[in-house]
């Protein structure tokens, strides 16, 4: 695939213009980072940087804008720099093993120390050290919430100029810049700072305190959006990890839709587009997504990995653009090439001109990377036939 005209083709998707070529922009960073760490990169790609692998595969680069990151030379998407208040200290410690473990693992412990008290998060590094997941969340009770409220009130954001310039010089003419924002407030709590079970319990037991916390989280989003004002960003992406089992329709209607309806005018007023990351089961939520005002969805995952058909995705999104759409399992060796090819052609029939094709959610570490090349060839033939 020739990526020379990718920037204009992606802008055509954002704008809903007819006739633009389909862009194939898969996320392969996870595959690359795990195999690089494990020493299992295919011989063809050994010694290559991630952007060189993209070039070799003939597909549009992604997750390459920022310099630096765990086990990788690239950080992923451009993120804002959070500046904590003068009376907030952040302490980070990496340790091997915790007192309750019979088999020690690597952990990252982060503490916020403030005049209101201290909150702590413990994250466990995955096997190859390429990602993290929570073993302990910051917010455990009302006292922690009071500390966190102080942190949020004092926090500000600024544009990461150095990483922006680094990425602009390398990819500014190829891919429009997207900036990664925090999850929407409810998902920020469920996935990021409080955990699902505790969030649901606290909403029931302490509705007033949680309502105030959600208002502060929303105000924090407005700080993030304002920090992007006047900058070169085209897309602001909320990393929601939306799943109907965490956020069922009643929660979605009460907490998510109102937030987005208030946030969208601020984003659109800056001339930018907004997307949300929907990589879970979403069949019950797709009929509601149009009420959010979002411009597009990322990583909606069809059957057999997700719970929706491509036709249901198109009907639910109704005019929104889709990024991704190929179930990640179809890139694994045990799935037939015929199924992969048939699904890709189905997506190409349904979604253009509102499609940036990719992997939902990301390329697995044990995937056959050459299947990316196969999809690239199918997309190239499709574009040439139009």
Automatic annotation (TrEMBL):
Annotated Uroporphyrinogen decarboxylase (URO-D) domain residues: 190-381
Family annotation (SUPFAM superfamilies): UROD/MetE-like (SSF51726)
Coiled-coil boundaries: none
Alphabetical GO biological process terms: porphyrin-containing compound biosynthetic process
One Pfam short name: URO-D
Annotated InterPro entries: UROD/MetE-like_sf (IPR038071), Uroporphyrinogen_deCOase (IPR000257)
Annotated GO MF terms: uroporphyrinogen decarboxylase activity
Protein name according to UniProt: Uroporphyrinogen decarboxylase (URO-D) domain-containing protein
Species per Swiss-Prot/TrEMBL record: miscellaneous Crenarchaeota group-15 archaeon DG-45
Record lineage: Archaea, Candidatus Bathyarchaeota, MCG-15
């Amino acid at each position: 695939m020739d990526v020379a005209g990718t920037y204009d083709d992606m802008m055509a998707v954002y704008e809903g213009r007819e006739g633009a070529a389909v862009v194939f922009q898969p996320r392969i960073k996870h595959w690359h980072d795990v195999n690089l760490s494990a020493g299992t990169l295919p011989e063809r790609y050994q010694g290559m940087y991630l952007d060189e692998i993209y070039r070799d595969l003939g597909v549009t680069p992604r997750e390459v804008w920022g310099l630096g990151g765990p086990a990788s030379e690239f950080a992923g998407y451009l993120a804002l720099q959070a500046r904590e208040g003068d009376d907030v200290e952040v302490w980070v410690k990496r340790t091997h093993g915790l007192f309750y473990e019979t088999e020690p693992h690597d952990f990252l412990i982060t503490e916020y120390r403030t005049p209101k008290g201290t909150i702590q998060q413990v994250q466990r590094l995955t096997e190859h050290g390429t990602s993290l997941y929570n073993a302990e969340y910051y917010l455990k009770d009302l006292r922690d919430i009071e500390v966190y409220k102080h942190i949020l009130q004092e926090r500000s954001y600024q544009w990461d100029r150095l990483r922006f310039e680094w990425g602009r010089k390398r990819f500014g003419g190829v891919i429009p810049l997207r900036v990664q924002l925090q999850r929407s407030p409810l998902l920020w709590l469920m996935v990021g700072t409080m955990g699902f079970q505790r969030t649901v319990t606290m909403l029931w037991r302490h509705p007033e305190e949680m309502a105030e916390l959600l208002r502060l989280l929303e105000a924090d989003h407005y700080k993030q959006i304002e920090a992007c004002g006047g900058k070169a960003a085209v897309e602001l992406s909320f990393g929601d990890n939306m799943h109907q089992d965490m956020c069922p329709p009643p929660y979605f209607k009460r907490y998510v839709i109102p937030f987005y309806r208030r946030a969208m005018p601020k984003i659109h007023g800056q001339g930018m587009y907004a997307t949300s990351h929907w990589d879970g089961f979403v069949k019950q939520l797709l009929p509601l997504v149009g009420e959010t005002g979002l411009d597009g969805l990322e990583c909606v995952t069809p059957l057999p990995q997700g719970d929706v058909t491509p036709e249901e995705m198109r009907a639910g999104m109704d005019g929104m653009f889709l990024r991704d759409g190929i179930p990640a399992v179809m890139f694994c060796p045990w799935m037939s090439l015929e199924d992969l090819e048939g699904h890709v052609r189905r997506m190409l029939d349904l979604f253009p001109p509102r499609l940036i094709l990719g992997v939902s959610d990301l390329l697995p570490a044990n995937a056959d990377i050459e299947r990316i090349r196969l999809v690239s060839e199918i997309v190239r033939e499709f574009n040439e036939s139009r």
